[in-house]
Design brief:
Number of helices of chain A: 5
Strand content of chain A: 5-15%
Strand content of chain B: 25-35%
CATH superfamily of chain B: Phosphatidylinositol 3-kinase Catalytic Subunit, Chain A, domain 1
Distance between the termini of chain B: 38 Å
CATH class of chain A: Alpha Beta
Low-confidence stretches of chain B: none
Order of helices and strands of chain A: EEHHHEHH
Strand order of the largest sheet of chain B: 2-1-5-3-4
Oligomer: heterodimer
CATH superfamily of chain A: Potassium Channel Kv1.1, Chain A
Strand order of the largest sheet of chain A: 2-1-3
Mean pLDDT of chain A: 80
Mean pLDDT of chain B: 94
Helix content of chain A: 25-40%
Number of strands of chain B: 5
Largest sheet of chain B: 5 strands, mixed
Largest sheet of chain A: 3 strands, mixed
CATH class of chain B: Alpha Beta
CATH topology of chain A: Potassium Channel Kv1.1, Chain A
CATH architecture of chain A: 2-Layer Sandwich
CATH architecture of chain B: Roll
Chain lengths: ~120, ~90
C-alpha cells in the first residue's frame, strides 16, 4: 500500500465546492473574441459543466477561460444567448421562441452537439 | 433579462432587470473589468443614446438581448471612441 498517506492539498481552494455556480467564465472563439458569461449560464452545457466541476479541473477552467478554436464568433455568441434563454425558459412561466437564422443552423447544431446542450 | 455589453473583441453578458438603473449595470461591470462606474460610458446600439446612470434600463429602451457599447475613460479624461471589432475582420486564414 503505497501513497495512502495524506491526500495532496487541493491546489486551488476555489475548486473545492463542486457545484460552485458563482463567478463568470470566459469563452474564446476561433477568431479570438471573448464572451464573458455567468458560470450558471455556462452550466447549461453539459460539456462545460463537466469542465467546470470535474475534480482537479481542466487547466483552462481553473483560469476561467475556455478556448473554442473550432467555433466561430457568430456561433459562440448565439450559443451564449441560448444559455441565457435556456436559464430564463427553464425557470417556468413564460415561453418564448429562440430565434435561429437558417444560414447558421448547421454550424449551430454541430457546436450544440459538441457542447451537449 | 440580459444585455450584451461590447467593447473591442469582448462581450459581457450581464443579467439585469428592466427596473435596474444604468449605474447598477456599471457596478456589475466593475467586478468584471476593474473599472469604476465613473470611468464607464454605456451607449445603446441602434439609437446611439448614452445611458444615464440614474435612469432605469426600461426608461432608456434597453430590452432583453440589447447590445450596449462600452467606452472607457482615457488618460485625458475623455471617453474613448466606441469600437466593436467585427469577426469578419479576423477570419482565420488557415
Amino acid at each position: 500500500m503505497v501513497g495512502k498517506g495524506e491526500a495532496p492539498a487541493p491546489r486551488d481552494p476555489e475548486e473545492e465546492e463542486e457545484e460552485d455556480t458563482g463567478g463568470v467564465v470566459k469563452l474564446i472563439s476561433a477568431e479570438g473574441f471573448e464572451f464573458v458569461i455567468d458560470k450558471k449560464a455556462a452550466m447549461v452545457s453539459n460539456t462545460l459543466r463537466n469542465m467546470l466541476t470535474s475534480p482537479g479541473g481542466f487547466s483552462e477552467t481553473r483560469q476561467g477561460e475556455v478556448r473554442f478554436p473550432e467555433i466561430s464568433t457568430h456561433i459562440l455568441e448565439k450559443i451564449c444567448q441560448y444559455f441565457y434563454w435556456s436559464l430564463h425558459y427553464s425557470s417556468g412561466q413564460e415561453t418564448a421562441e429562440f430565434p435561429i437564422e437558417p444560414e447558421i443552423t448547421l454550424d449551430l447544431m454541430m457546436a450544440a452537439n459538441y457542447l451537449d446542450t | 433579462m440580459y444585455i450584451r455589453v461590447k467593447r473591442n473583441k469582448s462581450t459581457y453578458f450581464i443579467q439585469c432587470e428592466p427596473t435596474e438603473t444604468a449605474l447598477s449595470v456599471k457596478q456589475k461591470l466593475h467586478s468584471l473589468i476593474d473599472q469604476p462606474p465613473s470611468n464607464q460610458q454605456l451607449v445603446l446600439l441602434g439609437t446611439n443614446d448614452v445611458l444615464e446612470d440614474s435612469k432605469t434600463l426600461a426608461d432608456q429602451k434597453v430590452e432583453n438581448d440589447s447590445v450596449v457599447a462600452l467606452a472607457l475613460r482615457k488618460d485625458d479624461n475623455a471617453f474613448e471612441e466606441i469600437f466593436i471589432a467585427r469577426p469578419e475582420d479576423f477570419m482565420s486564414s488557415s
